[in-house]
Amino acid sequence: MNLSKFHTFLISLFFIFLTATVISHPQASFEASKTGLSMWWEVVFPSLLPFFILSELLIGFGIVKFVGLLLEPFMRPIFRVPGVGGFVLAMGMASGNPAGAKLTARLRQDKQISRVEAERLVSFTNSSNPLFIFAAVAVGFFHNASLGILLASAHYLGNIAVGLTMRSYGRKEEAAYTGKKTIALPSLKEAFLALHKARLSEKRPLGKILGDAVTSSVQTLLMVGGFIILFSVFSRLLSIVQVMDVLSVFTNALLSLFHLPANLDIPLISGMFEITLGSKLVSEADAALLPKAMIVSFILGFSGLSVQAQVAGILSETDIRFKPFFAARILQGIYAALFILLLWKPLYLALDEPYQSVFLPFRDQEAVSAAVSGWNTLVETGPAITLTALAVYALIYCYRLSARTKKG
């Protein structure tokens, strides 16, 4: 049996096992599906939809090209990606996973970046959004607002570290079809001319642009929702059939190697599948705060196989390869955990020192309450936003379908 046939056999065996487990445990599968659907319905869809739609509009009207030319002298020498990468980095950090992949794929489809540049860019522009880190993880799970500063700092520094590491990726492949690029100082006039040219080249009317932005964003989020539900069920079933216990043998040995508490093995495995569940289990574990913070930081950096599957689905619409992204997630998990260790004393412990006035705004109870209130508002209004967006999507889809039928 050759390697290809062996892979086919393993994949078939896996899905047969998964199907049999779902059939034999219908109640657990149903509860896990509801959990995944609730997460997508209440939080993921309403929090990502505005960013996705605005990003599509900014790209369509050429504003991203304007920003890209201005950021070229910064992004090119540091990360070896075009200036538009700065826009993707900012939007990815603000909106969370998988916005960086969505925007990178969109730029690649428009041929604004090469394949190697896209693979570099997507490797360090996917991250958890600040609201999730502060409100859900730090306050919601750990009941410790100060921890949010440490986790966010380690997480985003991990992103930058991955970008610096991946800047040398694909150097030989890139050199085969590109020459040496000269980096000019930004010119507002040239940037505005590029914006104007991009706007004139866009032949779609405004209504069509808006409709395309909504439909493209909703379609991507529907796919994201499918992956969230699938991995929620998958993680739950693995726990029921005690596969988690088997996998914990390996994670237990790994944790022991780094002198971390062994009882964090199951939370770590759960987090490698889905970050929300893993972070919650870590917060509930009986261990010191420092190792728990390191494990949570690794989970947030690794992003979980659920997010990685979402990114793989988005990248499959382009020629961007998934392997560099997967390697970057392992790197970011390691970097983020190390940054927790490095920043623990100068950042987290400094929060308890009265003379560290620079941290006082983050310890203000009103700021903490605002973060929690923002998260609760999102959860409460999320279903209404999701329903409204899906209704608009259905109307646009039906209108375009009827228009095609009339033309036919």
Automatic annotation (TrEMBL):
Under the heading InterPro entries, the entry gives: Gate_dom, Spore_IM_YlbJ
Keyword check for Coiled coil, yes or no.
Answer: no
Boundaries of every Nucleoside transporter/FeoB GTPase Gate domain copy:
43-141, 221-315
Keywords assigned by UniProt, alphabetized: Membrane, Transmembrane, Transmembrane helix
Locate the transmembrane regions by residue number.
48-71, 131-157, 209-231, 294-314, 326-344, 381-399
Where does the secretion signal sit in this chain? none
Annotated protein name in UniProt: Sporulation integral membrane protein YlbJ
Whichever gene encodes this chain, its name is ylbJ
